[in-house]
Amino acid sequence: MHQGNQTTVSEFILLGLSSETEKQKVLFALFLGMYLVTVAGNGLIILAVVLNTSLHTPMYLFLANLSFADISSSSTFIPKMLVNLQTKSQSISYNSCITQMYFSIVFTVIDNFLLGVMAYDRFVAICHPLNYTTIMHPMLCMLLTVIPWVFSNIVALTHTLLLIQLVFCNSNTLPHFFCDLAPLLKLSCSDTTVNELVILVVGLSVILFPFTVILFSYICIIRAVLRLSSLGKRWKAFSTCGSHLTIVLLFYGTILGIYFCPVSTHPEDTDKIGAVLFTMVTPMVNPFIYSLRNKDMNGALRKLINKKWGLSLRCPHT
Length: 318
Ligand SMILES: *[C@@H]1O[C@H](CO)[C@@H](O)[C@H](O)[C@H]1NC(C)=O
Fold this sequence. Notes:
- The chain has a single domain, classed as Rhodopsin 7-helix transmembrane proteins (Rhopdopsin 7-helix transmembrane proteins, Up-down Bundle), CATH 1.20.1070.
- The protein is about 75% helix and about 5% strand.
- It has ten helices and three strands, in the order βααβαααβααααα.
- The N and C termini lie far apart (about 75 Å).
């Protein structure tokens, strides 16, 4: 069935980024900066939520979970990309490549489901405020954070087990900046019909189910908010949900951007760099969207910084 060279590859070449040395230096600094901001910002959110008992409500616990998934998903590919930029090598071993793919699927699926869970939480809070504590009891919150983990690992395992059956023979050059499922399939010289079918079915359900929950939640939320009589209450509800909605739009914008402007069809450096930035921006801006617009979160962060580093940061006159 397979013709030509049958030797399987032991490593892949990630063509991802610019080959010009000058550009590589700038990119290294840019990506390192973005990565540090992502880790620090999301790390602060996790610390603020975990250390503040007043923030132990479903909304903030889900937010901390999202921050954790954001740090993890950036960590699946940015450190490797930085090392490759610095060492001027583009190779990644077969095993690392499969591992990278596995975890990038896991965290993308978790992000997706957590956005759905957060929308559902706001829906209950705004549309059924009287029953909020009965509906969102700790047991359900636990389930809503554990199920995405279990489910995303099943999804990633399915894709990975199907992928490792494939033979790679002609080329090991990936026109991408990390080992992603779709470019790997394109590279294989085996028949990938089954893999593609599974991607379509699983991918659609993974995206459509949370998306439907988000859509219906926000329709109810917007209708409920418009019915509120007090302008102050209306503004408060809008500002919380506005930040959630911004993240949802960014996330689905990124997915659409990547699917409709696939990296491989635009071989120029600029397009690839744009795609990387796009993927890195959502996890990076999440903490800012939340903490800048949210009074409780702001207070908790300020308290955290004062308590932990207060001695060195506090002005002598205050
Ligand atoms: C994630 O959510 C669960 C349950 O809602 C909570 O117990 C846990 O502490 C959260 N994780 C983080 C990192 O805050």
